[in-house]
Amino acid sequence: MTFLWIFTVMLTFVFMEFVAWFSHKYIMHGFLWSLHKDHHIKNHDSWFERNDFFFIFYALVSSVFVILWGEANFWFGLPIALGIFLYGLTYFMVHDIFIHQRFKIFRKANGNMRKVFAVRTRFTIKTYTKKMESVLGCCGFL
User: What is the C-alpha to C-alpha distance for residues 38 and 100, in angstroms, rounded to an integer?
Assistant: First the structure.
């Protein structure tokens, strides 16, 4: 039973990459561009972006699975919710904080080696993303 639970969390996490790719290509760069464009075009002074509504949406989806688990005895609800949550947390930490540097956590890395590592890693990820966008038309997270 524990194996099935862990497998469901991991499978949901991996499936969320497809969801991120699909929603980024067809929804965010499609009919909801008005919410997503401030992620690409920084013409605001607020730390909050309209693009953050996508995070709120997926948090609500995750919450619905927790409610289904608790109220409707849907056994898979909690591991699915955790998979969505873990993907969202990982995405936020790497994409928004590390790559786009929305918060000033990794901007001033202490020590030359950490700074070089942070700059090189960020450059590598951005280069890879541009290459994948030219091949696939859009990217998810991984």
Answer: 12
Which residues does 18 contact at the CB level (< 8 Å), separation at least 6? 140
Question: Does position 136 have pLDDT exceeding 90, yes or no?
Answer: no
Query: How does pLDDT run across 104-118, given as a tens digit for each residue?
Result: 665 555 555 455 556
- CA pair distance 42, 8, nearest whole angstrom: 37
Name the average pLDDT for the chain: 79
CB 9 within 8 A of CB 82: yes
Which amino acid belongs to residue 6? I
DSSP label at residue 138:
S
The token pair that represents 9 in the structure block: 């969390």
Q: Where are the domains of the chain?
A: 2-38+45-136
> What does the block give as tokens for 115?
């700074």
**Tokens encoding 87:** 């993907």
Which helix (H) or strand (E) element contains residue 81?
helix 77-91
Question: Locate tokens 């953050």: which residue?
Answer: 52
Q: 4, 22, 11: which is closest to 75 by C-alpha?
A: 4
pLDDT value for 67: 97
